[in-house]
Amino acid sequence: MFTILPIKGYLDQIDGFNCDGISAGLKPSGDKDLGFIYTSTPCDVQAVFTENKFQAAPLKHFLQYEENFKTNFVLINSKNANAMTGKKGIEDINTIFNSLPFDLINPIMSSTGVIGNPLPIEKIVAGAKSFDLSASSGENLSKAIMTTDAYAKTCMYQVNLEDGSSFKIGAVSKGAGMINPNLATMLCFICTDANVPSKDMKEALIVNSETTFNAISVDGDTSTNDTVMLLANKKSNAYDKEAFIEALRLVMHDMAMLMVADGEGAKKAVAFEVINAISTEEAQIVAKALSNSLLVKTALFGEDPNFGRIASTIGASRITCDEETLVISYNDVIVYNKGELCFDGIQEAKASKVLKNDKYKVICDIGLGDSSFTAYGCDLGYKYVEINADYRT
Amino acid sequence: MFTILPIKGYLDQIDGFNCDGISAGLKPSGDKDLGFIYTSTPCDVQAVFTENKFQAAPLKHFLQYEENFKTNFVLINSKNANAMTGKKGIEDINTIFNSLPFDLINPIMSSTGVIGNPLPIEKIVAGAKSFDLSASSGENLSKAIMTTDAYAKTCMYQVNLEDGSSFKIGAVSKGAGMINPNLATMLCFICTDANVPSKDMKEALIVNSETTFNAISVDGDTSTNDTVMLLANKKSNAYDKEAFIEALRLVMHDMAMLMVADGEGAKKAVAFEVINAISTEEAQIVAKALSNSLLVKTALFGEDPNFGRIASTIGASRITCDEETLVISYNDVIVYNKGELCFDGIQEAKASKVLKNDKYKVICDIGLGDSSFTAYGCDLGYKYVEINADYRT
């Protein structure tokens, strides 16, 4: 038995973790753009990365370390992704770390921003030199890693175990667009003082990715930099595998939901729940197709219960389906029922009411099996176009 | 040897084809919404349909006829797709044809519009009863089949063969959104007086689909109603297989390009040319991924030469690729060259200039093989959201 309680506070709440964020002049606005996580005791670290074939330089740099290495320092910048920058991208990271006057053990870099420009090394080195590694402002860090995010994303849990011991686990992340299928332009740093064995860390990350980050979509794009990193300094001496996996799942789920709700102008957070498909794989294909369909997303934005677009997307996904077994609902309002026309004025009015909410479910009962999958998506409106038409400027 | 010349005029230019379009009251605006094609001599007819699993009722109705049937009448309505309407959808079509006072041979129906509502049979019957089957206004027909199209789409060619004989081939279509991978919400009716053998008709349609309609994308959705129909009344007695296939390709290419240029608010028609991939299949995957990427589409709208989004989309498509062999250009302006940073102020200014055009190429040289594929897409701006947020109203 264990309990998991949400608590307030940033990463620096966790014993042994320091962090901060500053403005190094990368963002022309003068907003914070460079941050760090530092641990007095070197941490075990595990990460899952983008499936994009063009991994950014910081990912390649990370992967040059031996398996199961320990680190005491993560440097994170926004505004420049250091992706598609060739060998120079990795050299730049080494140059930066070699210029810093700190005692760093296997330092890690993480970047997000525009692809294809060289890192502004001088600004980053000058900024990082000014860091106070004993600082503790998780709030500053959370701001420094933002790009098109409308708000900073963070969460924290305390896990109380049966034997009276406890550990904390929390995260900070960025991500609000290019979020989809297999990770997304998102960075998520999860820190814990749980005494988790290194071998359980990777397993827990992978187990939980499928139903959290890999189930959300803002626009169907997968970036070059996506990273979920788990740092464990073991300071608490408390651990229970089941509790740890569940607490990590909560952290990853919270972060994923905050990202989807911040989907570059999105006003609606929608769960696409596909049930009774013939396999989990097929349920997942449909759920993700729905969360990615432009026609579905614009109809959600227009608060239009145009279930035909949902049906059409299911059919276009080419999974096993039949219009005589399919049932489509918005929350508990059925709008399509196995080919019997049920979409009269009353149902339409009820459905319209559901669509006015900020958060609701689209439930698609395929009616042919017993497998299910839920994907999380959002609407797409003018704001998305505005943000993405001139992101670089 | 043969020559193919574009000529002016609508379908009624072709010997033996009559057509017209009227307002039957389906569109609240009072615009034309019901049209027909009638041939005094029954035609051979072949069609390719959507790959959506939920085929609309008119498609199922067509497929109930025996293979290689002949017809003399196609009835086309806009505003209602007659899709997801169960058995009633097909019964409604039979009811309509049984109510008409014409001598119809295997009549065909074709519908486009909102999914999931029953056909307004009475309005359609009343409208169709008023048809004058000897009318010849291809222009009226081209308007009657429009939904979100900004303009009517039509083309016509005359093919002169070596022996002095000639035939005509022309088309009318609708389609401006939901256009992608394998056909699209698009209807295309191609008529010819070529003396084409029935067996060549289907073959020519399939051969030409891959590089025309199946290569265009507006928003990645595939509808329930997509149809390309070829009607041949053989009146000319002229035929040459090679000439026919090429003329049909021109017709299908013209129609596809008009659809992509009319991509629901699109201002840019962009060819995504992928070259030197290791297989045609991989080239096609990337070309289509680029034409479907929201981040790419919004960057095109913003006239922003943000090649990082193109690179990221190539990487995310998971084809065989390497950042050290990849070259990306806008027309002849190279913006990414095998990892050597070449995107300086001069190249950026040149690239920006290309992006101000209404029409240009994005060329991605994968540098690993010798296969290529070109997909056609468009930008995505505010207008797309406006059109699709409240399409039904």
UniProtKB/TrEMBL annotation, chains A, B:
Protein location: Cytoplasm
Instruction: Enumerate the SUPFAM superfamilies for this protein.
Output: DmpA/ArgJ-like
Q: Listed GO molecular functions?
A: L-glutamate N-acetyltransferase activity, acting on acetyl-L-ornithine as donor
The annotated site for Cleavage falls at: 184-185
Q: Where is the major localization of this protein?
A: cytoplasm
Question: Which residues of this UniProt protein bind substrate?
Answer: 147, 174, 185, 264, 388, 393
Q: What does the record give as EC number?
A: 2.3.1.35, 2.3.1.1
Catalytic reaction list: L-glutamate + acetyl-CoA = N-acetyl-L-glutamate + CoA + H(+); N(2)-acetyl-L-ornithine + L-glutamate = N-acetyl-L-glutamate + L-ornithine
Which Pfam families does this one have?
ArgJ
Active site (catalytic residues): 185 (nucleophile)
Annotated site location: Involved in the stabilization of negative charge on the oxyanion by the formation of the oxyanion hole: 112-113
Q: Which top-level enzyme class is recorded in the Swiss-Prot or TrEMBL entry?
A: transferase
Arranged from A to Z, the UniProt key words for this protein are: Acyltransferase, Amino-acid biosynthesis, Arginine biosynthesis, Autocatalytic cleavage, Cytoplasm, Multifunctional enzyme, Transferase
Q: Family membership, please give it.
A: Belongs to the ArgJ family.
| Purpose | Catalyzes two activities which are involved in the cyclic version of arginine biosynthesis: the synthesis of N-acetylglutamate from glutamate and acetyl-CoA as the acetyl donor, and of ornithine by transacetylation between N(2)-acetylornithine and glutamate.
Q: How does it assemble?
A: Heterotetramer of two alpha and two beta chains.
Protein name in the entry = Arginine biosynthesis bifunctional protein ArgJ
Organism annotation: Poseidonibacter ostreae
Q: What is the lineage of its organism?
A: Bacteria, Pseudomonadati, Campylobacterota, Epsilonproteobacteria, Campylobacterales
